[in-house]
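Reading a protein record of the kind used here takes only a little practice. These numbers are not coordinates but entries in a learned vocabulary of local backbone shapes. Here is one such record, which you should read through line by line.
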Amino acid sequence: MKNSRNFIETRRKKIYQALEKHGSVKVDELAEELHTSPLTIRRDLDYLEQQNLIERYYGGASIRRNRDAQSSINSVGMSYKHAIARHAAQFVSDGDTIFINSSSTALLTIKYITAKMVTIITNNGKAIFSDSNEDINIILTGGELRPPKEVMLGEFALNNLNLVTANKCFLGCSGLTVEEGFTTAAMQEVAINQLMLSRVTGKKYILADHTKIGNKQSFISGSPSQISCIITDSEANKAVLDSFSALGVQTIQAPQLD
């Protein structure tokens, strides 16, 4: 497994180096150069896009020339997200069925799950490109695919979610306050988030880096009373976390990765 992961990381570095050199790349040309399939290249490009390093377009990708320090492959922001995701994965047990929403932080949890026979139900289309172990079964809700997040929305997704339950959920958000609960900037995602919360029989984990704690967006996805646990990073506002704790919500500040 370690050798396989190293091979993947090496290939992705070669792709990024090609982008730095040429500015843009074509999927078919990269597949031929690296002796792999176009599908594999598309997965790698999706991963690099999640890191905010590139911009995808049909048949290829271009490098982000205007990215700031947080957009680099080893950015502090991404290290916080990975720290949260790694810690969240510890709460996934053998045989669990879990919901994951469109959040990039929640999606990263898949990478760190070591439990066996886990089923993930998600409306995040990028889940099919996630690094995961062979004991994880990923089920997509289906629905209308909305770029650039590749989130699945609409009646089709909602109808399918109504047919299943999960014993845990790991949901990301755009904002998290004691007054409003967890909020999103995308109105279309509210119904999915609310339905996932209502279809969970066990603990409900909200994953939010420190930039979300104490901030709110326009659309409410869930109230504080619906949250079992908040997992954030070491820089989160302690006063806000204490306010959640006073309501009986468990709060965890994940240590930053080495």
Observations:
- The radius of gyration is 18 Å.
- The chain is about 35% helix and 25% strand.
- The longest helix spans residues 2-22.
